[in-house]
Amino acid sequence: MTHNPLLKHHKAPDAGTTPDTSAAFPAAVTAAEVAPVSRPSLYPEPFATQMAKREKRQLGDQFGLTNFGVNLARIAPGGTSALRHFHTRQDEFIYILAGQPVLVTNRGETPLKPGMCAGFKAGNGDAHHLINRTAGEVVYLEVGDRSAGDDVIYPDDDLLLKEDSQGNPQFLHKDGSAY
């Protein structure tokens, strides 16, 4: 066997400087076996019931990921991924695994199919969500970063999500009053 200088050799971190906390999390999981989130949405009513046909499994949390989240999401026929929204500080990305949702953005509607993906840059004002208008289930991966200080704007609804002074998210009416 010849030495290839292009191959990187991984060296274990110095035991004195980097504690190994990996034992607290599994090396791998079967995504479909991760329990779905018990509440379909944290939205206040009347918006929460609109998410009844959506299911999310928080895959990234299974590994202790803190800088970004990864969800395996499913939308039943007639359901939607979220209220149409955009983030001020957090990027989002979706990858369609199954089904044919419609992506609704400020630019209009775009039919999606398995293998397609879409990204939503923070702060650009392009509100988005997926709608399942088919008779089959939609399955997709959803990835989003967890940058602090993020506000979520819902242009079609009387709803804002803002962080309070302690960094806790709170839902507000557009006039700033609490739900």
From TrEMBL:
Residue span, Cupin type-2 domain: 72-143
Metal-binding recorded as keyword: yes
InterPro entries to which the protein is assigned, alphabetical: Cupin_2, GPI/OXD, RmlC-like_jellyroll, RmlC_Cupin_sf
Xref: Pfam families: Cupin_2
Keyword entries, A-Z: Metal-binding
GO molecular function terms attached to this record: metal ion binding
Compositional bias segments (type: Basic residues): 1-11
Region annotation Disordered: where it falls in the sequence: 1-22
Identification of the protein by name: Cupin
